[in-house]
Amino acid sequence: MDPAQQRAIQDLQAALALLREPAGKDPRFSSLTAIKENFQDFIAAANAGYKKLHLSTIPKILEREHAIVGARKRKAEHEARAYEFSRLLWYRINDSIVWLMLSGQRHEFKRLMAYRPRPSLLEQRPEPIFSTLSEIYADPHTMAVWNDCTTCVDIGDIFAVNKITGECRFVEVKAGDVNREVSKALESGAAARTEFIEKYKEAGRRQLERFERQHVVAEQVLHILREEKGFDPFAKHEISIVETKTPAISYDGELQVAIEAAKTGGMSIRCVDDCLWLFATTETNRERVITDFRAHLEARLQGKALNHLRAMLERADVPTLFDLRNSFYYPMTQPLYLRGIRDEALFDLVFGSVSVFLYFDWTAFENLVKAHGANFRWSSEKEGRRARARSAATRPLVILGRVPIIQIGDFEVQMGAPRLLCILCDGQTPSSLAQQEVEGCEASAKAKR
Predict the structure, then answer these.
(1) Residues 6+ apart with CB under 8 A from 447
(2) In what order do the strands lie in the sheet with 168-171?
(3) pTM over 0.85
(4) For 375-398, what is each residue's pLDDT tens digit?
(5) Which of 82, 227, 271, 413 is most buried as measured by Cβ atoms within 10 A of its Cβ?
(6) What contacts 426, CB < 8 A, 6 or more positions away?
């Protein structure tokens, strides 16, 4: 292992230690019972750890952004992409903090996203951000993150949560005299707004309208976080959160075993719920890994399942053989750092000494849905073309030109990409997800009656 990689692992190890034990080894927080008895002190201590961790990621991100710029100047594109992935590892540390700020509520986590590209921190003015963070951090019960240091928060400049009251806030940090005038005009009413537009003409009007749009989006999302229903400004329609009784069961134990077996024997293949195939290998050549995994699948699948695999490999709308390392690129997913695998296995994945690829068998998932009391069907290709034309925020999954649909009576629900990512990236078993989908479909059908 070269010194740079060794240092990167040590830095991540230190970050993960703080992420997992933000309140330290204090005996007051040694058990769930003890935490409940000292809850406010625990929140204050945990937030202190998260604040320290968040601030420590910023120089790491900046260091990698300087390296990206340098590599691109030298036209070393492969090196630049490696630094971009290294930067992403630190973005996802902050995503993990946000996930924990929201107590792992996935439906809340995804509400924060517009899937926008991240601006470079090198182009930012950090002083106003740090000043505002310092003010927020004065409250020991409130945690806040600089949104541009995440991949998952696209509203405002800072996202803050008070873990005692549950209050969420999106904070706009507007530096400069003109921006301060905009804020004052919006707070002061119609006369001040008119005066500002007269002073700054068309450019001022556009700036006011931009501030107003940002405020409306923030309020709409905050309403959903509070009430679990409302108008989603990104999906552009009303939504209502449906809770299911079935817990999300994890297959991370199987994943851990697969990684350990690969390190011992070079390769391991396992199957979860006769539906999700895990392939772990120490082979470093990506094309060879894909070829080997395909061969193992073709040797094990039969009939309809085998034909579907071959069709997927020939004409895939989504990656057929999913590289688990690529989960870092999906902001809506639970960060890999929070999955139930040991650090050694995690670093094997992150730094490439073990590759893990997954294959989701749709024919087996159809059987799981039916076993839980619903019907499963594929849309027509015409419906698939219509679905593909929809916006990213509302587009369902399109597989081989068709949309997977769960149906109860005359009521049906189209499956979206986030549900598949729950399995591929979050580590949820296909059976528990199928049961949740059926429960959600039943609840929606009852609500429509």
Answers:
(1) 240
(2) 142-146, 158-162, 168-171
(3) yes
(4) 999 999 999 999 988 887 788 999
(5) 413
(6) 106, 248, 333, 334, 339
